[in-house]
Specification:
- There is one protein chain.
- By secondary structure, this protein is α+β, with helices and mostly antiparallel strands.
- It has three domains: 172 residues, no CATH class; 115 residues, Rossmann fold (3-Layer(aba) Sandwich); 59 residues.
- It is built from eleven helices and 16 strands.
Length: 422
């Protein structure tokens, strides 16, 4: 199949083909349309617009004409409005080219798998896929950008990226990339529309139009840039829990990998990222005593001084380690938020004093509370909130409606969070 060399912004065409899937044979018709980018000029995106869409979309619909068992003969189909088999082995039997990324696969493989699953499981359902083609040359800011931007899209069944950080991509031009296979070979992403029942093409076309609107809304910014982003080396203080406990922390590691950031994990001896099997998630692991005390900033800085490479920045996702991490960064001369600001953000008592000093009372325990209440000139107005000065996720927080409730809440906090104020 060749793209029509016409001046229209939206070249269209189609072809029919036959394919084998498990114990079935299928005869399908492929309708394609190349959607132009209204933000482009002379084939290239205008980088002056922050809302430009740096990609074109190739709209593919695979409609089943007939599906029959492989062990049964079928008379040749007459030529019809669907045409004849022009690309009988192009899609299902074509081999991936040498440019295939071994990690992400190719758009061709995604199309082949989608057709196979649809024929196996749904028979009469139309397979609809939107292929993303680069409208400008450059580098992607992260290699999972399309998947991330479509996480909440209800129209998408599967979303895939076919890019790698550091590998240059080149603008697609249908006047030279004349075949469907060539366009799939240079695709930077694909969105597989969720399965819709039956072969009602108008319903599928409507859904694909809505999906095109989603592409414009979610990807109209400069995620393909002129210059390769410099590779950074980031120290992560506290590598978080083992994935078997919670998979949420892996988001940190996936983001670092997608951005091509070298991650150096600083944590206690025996942490899961120390194991050689965790090398896929980090570049280096450095052991450090993580006891939260006045010496922690020095220990973090000393540990990172042993790193095999230059550290560009330090961060942590642990609230309790923010002040110490900021102080370690300052000791190493790295960019950081002021440790004093981290102290205020970390300590609810200090935050209250910083914002307004007349709306709260800080006490060290039940005995201190009783003594402070005796000095109050006006009675306390209930309900009140009792909470530990340091903590997260509302741990230890209680709503109290009387003095008796208040005393009980403070006593619980004093027993559970020893050494902390409330």
């Amino acid at each position: 199949m060749e793209f029509q060399k016409i001046s229209s912004r939206c070249p269209v065409g189609g072809f029919s083909f036959e394919t084998n899937v498990a114990d079935k044979r299928a005869y399908l018709y492929c309708h394609w349309r190349l959607n132009g980018n209204t933000s482009t000029e002379n084939g290239a995106v205008s980088r002056g617009s922050s809302r430009s869409l740096p990609c074109l979309t190739l709209h593919l619909l695979f409609t089943p004409i007939i599906i029959w068992p492989r062990n049964k003969a079928l008379a040749p189909l007459p030529h019809s409005s669907y045409g004849h088999v022009t690309d009988g082995h192009t899609l299902q039997d074509a081999a991936p080219t040498q440019t295939e990324n071994s990690e992400t696969g190719t758009a061709l493989r995604l199309v082949q798998d989608a057709i196979k699953k649809n024929v196996e499981n749904y028979d009469t359902s139309i397979t609809a896929i939107k292929i993303l083609l680069p409208a400008t040359s450059g580098y992607v800011v992260r290699n999972d950008i399309i998947q991330r931007r479509f996480l909440t899209c209800q129209l998408a069944k599967d979303v895939a990226d076919f890019t790698a950080v550091g590998k240059k991509i080149y603008a697609f031009d249908y006047s030279t990339e004349t075949t469907l296979l060539k366009s799939l070979d240079v695709a930077i992403g694909a969105i597989h529309l969720k399965y819709l029942p039956g072969v009602e093409s108008r319903l599928v076309e409507y859904a694909m139009t809505s999906l095109e609107d989603e592409v414009k809304a979610r990807l109209s910014f400069s995620w393909i840039v002129d210059k390769l982003l410099p590779r950074k080396r980031l120290a992560l203080v506290d590598g978080k829990a083992y994935p078997d406990v919670s998979t949420a922390p892996l988001g940190i590691y996936r983001a670092a990998r997608a951005l091509s950031i070298e991650l150096v994990v600083v944590d206690h001896n025996g942490h899961w990222t120390e194991d050689p099997s965790a090398k896929e998630w980090r570049d280096e692991f450095i052991t450090c005593d993580m006891t939260v005390d006045e010496g922690l900033p020095d220990r973090i800085a000393n540990a990172l001084s042993k790193s095999k490479g230059l550290i560009d920045c330090i961060t942590t996702y642990s609230d309790k380690l923010l002040p110490a991490t900021a102080r370690a960064a300052r000791k190493m001369g790295l960019y950081t938020s002021p440790p004093e600001a981290m102290d205020i953000c970390h300590d609810k008592r200090k935050m209250r004093e910083f914002t307004s000093s007349d709306t709260h009372m800080t006490v060290s325990g039940l005995a201190d509370l009783k003594g402070r209440i005796e000095l109050v000139t006006a009675p306390l107005r209930y309900p009140l909130i009792a909470k530990p000065a340091i903590g997260y996720c509302s741990d230890g927080v209680a709503k109290v409606s009387s003095q008796t409730d208040l005393f009980s809440a403070v006593q619980r906090i004093e027993g559970r969070f020893q050494g902390l104020k409330s």
